[in-house]
Specification:
It is built from 13 helices and 49 strands. It is mostly beta strands. Strand 8 and strand 9 (about 110-115) form a beta hairpin. Helix 5 (about 285-290) packs antiparallel against helix 6. The chain is globular.
Length: about 1000
């Protein structure tokens, strides 16, 4: 019997194996652009319904084994997906689709949808659009001007970045107006680090120190795509972390096929975008400004050729930039991988400033069988930044920009003598050359981000699928900051005789989500998707700053001083959410979604109370109905969406903090004074509930001429209720400096328009262009305390400040004019527009450029105010200025300027060498520039900068920043 069984089995295999071999066919061919005939590189070719796939090579060729009777799916960014029977495949032509209707967009924790079925406006940025033109120092900096509804401001141009991104206007007054960042399912910290220099500079708060925010650690070259959920109607599924929107980042992953090795080298340099300018003195103007005794000193320096331009001396460097990237990717039908190693070394426009980032990434995906697959994303980053003595100050002798304006005379010789001794500044509080050469201001970051996901398909029937997914990860970083001011520095000799501040911050963020996902075909072309699950977040941080003054000579050790101070801030945040959502799709004609999230948090007054955040949306694809007969319009979609999100109070708002005190020599706890974290004697509120946003969004989308032209029209109204804010106008006799309130409502209204087109497409020219236009108004609807000046959002009303008044915009700027608090400007732009172009010339050349136009938006130019007080502003000899001095005649209103500009954000020209070379597949060389041209009437460094960092209102006030830089690059890219 055994022999009979073996013989029978052998016979069966002899019959089956030829049939199996016969059922597999090899399909090969070339994929080209349907209009130009140009071969398309990197097109994904997959056997539909399986994981078998490949990519086209440099000549557009592909080869794949496919079962008989199967279908091949061809997909490529910017082109419509194409399904072809394997038997009929061979050479394939793909049609351009600038509307990307077949693009799958991630819209929730475990949900995605075709763009043609979206009910919200979701901005997407591909890797090509993000870094394909030029290299960006940081992720947020690379996003400038590339999305509707997004406003970006920099606190200055110091290497390493400090950028504020705001989606659809103001979301909070005291909290973070920055969106939630998620990378491969991991919630990423984007905190701004303080370094303690405010204690020495006299700045009002740590956020004025010019430190970076942590999203700058992410290597832009690792990113495959970015999707931005701008409003509450799209972001509601993320609950209390999503009040300012959500940025979903997907990094690059491997693909089935041969292993691909890519190496890219960029060489460039930084140079200042714009000098504010210096006054050109004569003997007469020296006498009128500084007195007759200064005239012979000036004339002697002039006659000896010793008139210096200290602005150019400080900011005139051309900093070298080296950016190297090596990636390896590939895999088989079971396991795919992507590895990237990169190093960026960037020198600033001022000596002893620069930024370095070293990044390693490994992404792995493994499919155990048809049911179970897992994925891992690992990223290690080490970065260092040397920012120099920059940031705002109150005449503490630290900031070179502040003391350059108030006041450093260009005939002062501030350079060291032959013994290395620096002279004292005779007008400013310090010698700015000494500060540049001897003050240290640095940070070092070690960061590890680990993400993981698992998916199990429990049931896979023809009409019903049930799968379980879980994902999460951790984001851990250790940040070290160091500030050193020698005891020989001019201001320090008269005050604390040297200063050292050494900070150490440890931050750990954990998150995980678990969901059950159901897909059900109910018949009659009705498909139902349901997802139900939970989300858990835990964020902890420990920030310590140790400071020493009264240093021993030439010592930088914390122990080598005679006066010590320690500042520590511990935070712990914990949140838990329950989520449910369902989508019903009738034949891609009507798509309806409804969902709700319940969140609780230890940042709320009742940590066990759940708050509900619902969402609902409806999209109607009118052009998909049978009655539609307009052939030129292949998409006409009407959409409407509603959603709610929230934002809990900042850690510490629920309670009144205590600090060490001593009464009669007896130690104890009492109310603290203003400390390192601007944590003053605050009266907490133990009953706080989250701020909430309710948004209604509506729009219409069109696609014409088979995707050659696309148009998106969106309008929205977002009401933010019960904003939480510190109110400082309370009697000091109460024993408190401020109290926490939440009786503030505001409304954001806006319009967004995006027009995409492929106006020329032939064998010589293929031109894709996108024009974006957007506007937003944020108005104060309710204010329980009357008008007030927000804490930490400006200076005294003598010099101008942000100001909150019911009935005015939340971005108002105000000043005291003749004893009356008067609105003098609005920091929000009237509107913004960007124009992005990709032009392929004669198959081998690629020209790309991005223009960005910001219309309106007032800027309080306090750099000019300082230089007016110092007597060094370039136009002080203008007769009109002499007759009407700005401050004396108009007060702070004399320094409000229109921040309108038109800027060439990016431009690049690349050549793909057409010849085949044995040892590599592709050689691409090019040149590019970033921020190389700005057209503006603004008279200081940059109308985009703001003194107050990424949190709060954070725009419209400039105080002698580190100037912004233009960047120029030469690129070489090899593919093996």
């Amino acid at each position: 019997m055994k022999r009979t069984f073996v013989k029978g089995t052998f016979l069966i295999w002899l019959l089956v194996l030829p049939l199996m071999a016969y059922s597999q066919v090899t399909v090969s061919g070339t994929v080209t652009d349907a209009d130009s005939g140009e071969p398309l590189i990197g097109v994904t070719v997959i056997v539909k319904g399986s994981t078998t796939g490949t990519l086209t090579d440099i000549d557009g060729n592909y080869s794949i084994n496919a079962p008989e009777g199967s279908t091949l799916t061809f997909s490529f960014i910017g082109y419509s997906d194409l399904d072809v029977a394997a038997a009929d495949a061979g050479d394939v032509q793909m049609q351009t689709d600038v509307t990307n209707l077949d693009e799958v967009v991630v819209t929730g924790l475990v949900s995605s949808i075709k763009r043609s079925n979206l009910a919200n406006s979701v901005s997407t940025v591909s890797s090509e659009a993000l870094t394909g033109t030029t290299t960006g120092s940081t992720l947020d900096g690379a996003l400038y001007g590339k999305m509707t509804g997004v406003n970006i401001n920099a606190a200055g141009g110091a290497p390493g970045g400090q950028t504020a991104m705001r989606l659809r206007g103001i979301s909070s007054l005291s909290g973070n107006n920055q969106p939630l960042f998620i990378v491969d399912g991991v919630y990423i910290s984007n905190v701004q680090l303080t370094n303690g220099s405010a204690v020495a500079s006299g700045a009002n708060a740590g956020r004025e120190e010019g430190g970076s925010n942590r999203v700058s650690d992410i290597n832009p070259d690792d990113i495959e795509s970015i999707e931005v959920l701008k409003g509450a109607s799209a972001a509601a599924i993320y609950g209390t972390r999503a009040n300012a929107g959500v940025v979903i980042i997907t990094t690059k992953r491997g693909a089935t096929g041969k292993t691909t090795v890519k190496f890219d080298q960029d060489i460039g340099f930084n140079t200042i975008q714009n000098f504010a300018g210096r006054r050109q003195f004569t003997s007469a103007t020296v006498a009128s400004t500084f007195g007759d005794a200064e005239v012979p000193i000036f004339e002697a320096a002039r006659d000896a050729g010793r008139i210096f331009n200290y602005e150019e001396e400080l900011y005139g460097e051309e900093g070298l930039i080296l950016d190297s990237r090596l990636s390896i990717s590939g895999g088989n039908d079971k396991t795919t991988f992507y590895f990237n190693a990169s190093r960026r070394d960037e020198d600033g426009i001022m000596q002893r400033t620069g930024y370095e980032r070293n990044s390693l990434r490994l992404n792995l995906d493994h499919r155990f069988n048809d049911k179970l697959k897992v994925g891992f994303s690992s990223n290690y980053i080490n970065s260092t930044a040397d920012r120099g003595p920059v940031g705002n100050e109150n005449n503490g002798g630290f900031s070179v920009g502040y003391n350059l304006a108030l006041v450093t005379a260009d005939w002062e010789d501030l350079f060291p003598d032959e013994n290395g001794v620096y002279p004292d500044g005779r007008f400013a509080a310090t010698n700015i050359i000494f500060n540049r050469d001897r003050i240290d201001n640095s940070e070092e970051i070690n960061r590890y981000v680990q993400g993981a996901n698992v998916e199990y398909k429990a049931i896979t029937d023809e009409n019903f699928q049930l799968r379980f997914t879980a994902n999460g990860g951790l984001d851990y970083f250790e940040a070290k900051t160091f500030v050193y001011i020698p005891e020989s520095q001019q201001t320090q000799r008269a005050t604390t005789q040297g200063f050292v501040s050494a900070g150490n911050t440890n931050s750990l963020q954990l998150n995980y989500n678990a969901f059950a996902v159901v897909d059900y075909n109910a018949g009659n072309n009705i498909n139902i998707n349901g997802q139900f699950g939970m989300s858990y977040l835990n964020f902890e941080s420990d920030a310590i700053i140790n400071q020493t003054t009264q240093l021993f000579p030439n010592q930088t050790n914390l122990a080598q001083g005679n006066s010590f101070a320690v500042f520590q801030r511990l935070t712990e945040e914990e949140e838990f959410g329950l989520i449910g959502q369902s989508t019903v799709n009738w034949d891609d004609k009507i798509i309806a979604t409804a969902g709700i999230r319940f969140d609780k948090s230890n940042l709320n007054g009742d940590p066990n109370k759940f708050f509900a955040f619902p969402r609902a949306s409806l999209a109607v694809n009118v052009a998909n109905f049978d009655f539609w007969n307009v052939d030129a319009v292949n998409l006409f979609k009407l959409r409407v969406a509603y959603g709610e999100t929230g934002s809990s109070a900042q850690f510490g708002s629920l309670f009144t903090p205590l600090g060490p005190t001593s009464i009669g020599g007896v130690p104890g706890l009492g109310l603290p004074t203003v400390g390192q974290n601007n944590q003053s004697a605050q009266l907490g509120d133990a009953n706080l509930e989250p701020e909430t946003s309710q948004e209604i969004e509506f729009g219409a989308d069109f696609s014409f001429l088979d995707g050659k032209i696309g148009l998106e029209l969106t309008g929205y109204k977002r009401d933010v209720k019960n904003l939480i804010y510190p109110f400082s106008s309370i009697p000091l006799s109460s024993g408190f400096a401020n109290t926490i309130r939440n009786d503030f409502d505001l409304s954001n209204k806006g319009v967004e328009i995006s027009l995409s087109a492929n106006p020329i497409s032939n064998s010589n020219i293929n031109w894709n262009t996108t024009l974006n236009w957007w506007t937003n108004d944020a108005d104060v609807e309710r204010l329980g305390v009357g008008e007030f000046q927000p804490s930490g959002e400006g200076f005294s009303l003598t010099f101008g400040s942000s100001f909150i008044r019911e009935g005015e915009t939340a971005t108002s700027l105000a000043a005291n004019i003749n004893g009356v608090t008067t609105i003098i400007g609005d920091a929000a732009p009237d509107w913004e527009m960007s124009w992005f172009n990709q032009i392929k010339l004669f198959r081998d050349f690629d020209l790309t450029f991005l223009w960005h136009w910001k219309e309106g938006g007032d800027v309080l130019n306090l750099t000019k105010l300082l230089s007016d007080f110092g007597g060094v502003t370039p136009d002080l000899d203008n007769p009109d200025v002499i007759a009407n001095p700005r401050f004396g005649t108009f007060g702070a209103a004399g320094y409000i300027e229109d921040g309108t500009y038109i800027r060439l954000r990016e431009v690049g020209l690349y050549w793909t060498v057409p010849a085949e070379i044995d040892w590599f597949e592709r050689l691409r060389i090019g040149v590019s520039g970033k921020n190389i041209l700005t057209i503006t009437d603004y008279t200081s460094y940059d109308p985009e900068t703001s003194a107050f960092g990424p949190s709060g209102l954070s725009q419209g006030i400039e105080v002698a920043p580190f100037p912004s830089a233009a960047q120029y690059y030469f690129h070489v890219g090899l593919t093996f």
